Amino acid sequence: MHAQREAVECRADVSPCADWTRAFFVPRAQPIRRIILGSKSILTQRFEWVAAGDDMKSVHVVACGALMAAALAGAAGLLAQSAPASPDSKRLIGTWRLIGYESSDPEARQVRGPAPTGLLYYDNTGHMAVQIAPDRVRRPFTGPASGIFTGPRPTPAEALDAISGYGAYFGTYSVDERARTVTHKRLGNLNPAALGDFVRRYEFRNGDELVLVPLDRTDLRSVRLSWKLLK
User: Fold this and answer.
1) What span, in angstroms and rounded, lies between the C-alpha atoms of 198 and 196?
2) CB contact at 8 A, 7 and 46
């Protein structure tokens, strides 16, 4: 028997599939070789089966309603993963301005300066970003001109001075209300070696203030960051 091709499109925005028991005959000798899945929207899925062979002893019955339910359940799962739902997650959403920086590390205090500035963002899709700039004069770049910089490129000493005390990364976040922690999953970072999870204990104060304390620091390098929600 020649290769057989059968396709069906289930459009939930038009009407449910009229025949919930529509069967597709797939040879036992050669099971499904290829599945093509594409969609114009969450509620429109197209599935195509290509079968070949001459043994029609095996019948696979595919219920269109089950496929649509699975597609909708998968879409709902993706939305649930991307959007924070807990009360504390909702309180985090917004733009926060750095209003306080405390560190027990003398070197960190020196490169950050007495009053560093920064912004922290959390959105309702589970993404975040932060930048903290040091409160000190940084050396201007004086190296030869380069197309990848606006103006001169930095010398090695100037590059080190520019990034020392400067923090910048972005990624996703999740909240554990029981542990009172927020985990930043860093996808991009000024420091290429500092990617992945970064856990901070959080505390809300005065309704519009947020205190974050990194948990990966030792007692000798304790850090405390205070933020105020911008309205």
Assistant:
1) 7
2) yes
pLDDT for 68 equals: 44
Are 222 and 104 contacting, i.e. CB atoms less than 8 angstroms apart?
yes
Over residues 98-122, mean pLDDT: 95
Per-residue pLDDT of 9-20, as tens digits, reads 333 333 343 343
Residue 225: name the closest of 102, 107, 127 by CA: 102
The tokens of 46 are what?
Answer: 């197209």
The residue type found at 129 is A
pTM: 0.63
Q: What's the CATH number of domain 87-229, 3.40.50.150, 3.40.190.10, 2.40.128.280, 3.40.920.10? A: 2.40.128.280
How far apart (Å, rounded) are the C-alpha atoms in residues 128 and 217? Answer: 21
What are the angstrom distances between the C-alpha of 160 and each of 110, 138, 152, 154?
Answer: 14, 10, 15, 9
- H-helix or E-strand spanning residue 198: strand 196-205
